[in-house]
Amino acid sequence: MIKACIFDLDGTILYTLDSMAKPGNQVLKELGLKAHPVENYRYYCGDGPDVLVKRILEDAGDKELACYDRALPLYREYFSRDMMYGVKEMPQVRETLTDLKKRGLKLAVCSNKPQEATKAIIETFYPGIFDVVIGQSQEVPRKPAPDEAWMAAEGMGVLPEECVYIGDSGTDMLTGKAAGMYTVGVLWGYRDLDELEENGADTAVFAPEDLIRLPVLDG
């Protein structure tokens, strides 16, 4: 029986591309490199800020990552100054989360954003909704390692097999599978159905309200 749902953050419960593109492009401009369109950041994000910085540098022509050691601390600094920039709720997500809570399900967030940022963003947009909020830290391997998901399950007092893992990327599907959870890919986020299925999605949904109708959550 499913007792809990674990959600990814970026692209799943919140639109966050602008908040990453702004500091990312600031860094590129400061380094004398060409900025990227905001939409490109849907492919740069998802695996933590260090990987994002590597991806934006490579696509800007720094294939050897010669600027990486300078770029990463700059990105972290600029992001921390305005982490809420352009962030907004994904449509119908709040209503879906409320419905799931009414059914008695526990809710958690697992993100590759830094822990401090993850908690601050969730407290701003969804205060009191999630039972556990976990972001990236030095003590815990980042997704797709299953550690965050296991920590979330333990924090909610449930077993991994009693959880549904919900996200918009292949990284999320790999995380859920590695943790021994049922995986749901969402198609309103940053990646496509092929990526979700190739990385182990048990099913996929087109809209947040579709989560309510999943057989695995029925009853």
- Gyration radius from CA atoms, angstroms: 17 Å
- Largest sheet, spatial ordering of strands: 5-4-1-6-7-8
The share of residues in helices is 40-55%
Mind describing the biggest β-sheet? 6 strands, parallel
The CATH superfamily of the largest domain is identified as HAD superfamily/HAD-like
SSE series: EEHHHHEHEHEHEHEHE
Total beta-strand segments: 8
Count the DSSP helices.
9
Total discrete domains: 2
- Termini separation (Å)? 9 Å
Question: Could you walk me through the main structural features you see in this protein, from its secondary elements to its overall organization?
Answer:
- The protein is of the alpha/beta class and 219 residues long.
- The protein has two domains: 4-15 and 88-217, HAD superfamily/HAD-like (Rossmann fold), CATH 3.40.50.1000; 17-81, DNA polymerase, domain 1.
- Helices cover 41% and strands 16% of the residues.
- The protein has nine helices and eight strands.
- The protein has helices spanning 17-30, 41-44, 49-59, 68-81, 93-102, 115-125, 147-156, 170-178, 193-198, and strands spanning 4-7, 14-15, 88-89, 106-114, 132-136, 163-167, 182-186, 203-205.
- Strands 5-4-1-6-7-8 form a six-stranded parallel β-sheet, sandwiched between helices.
- Helix 1 (17-30) packs across helix 4 and helix 3 (49-59) crosses helix 4 (68-81).
- It is elongated and about 55 Å long.
- The model has no long low-confidence stretch (mean pLDDT 97).
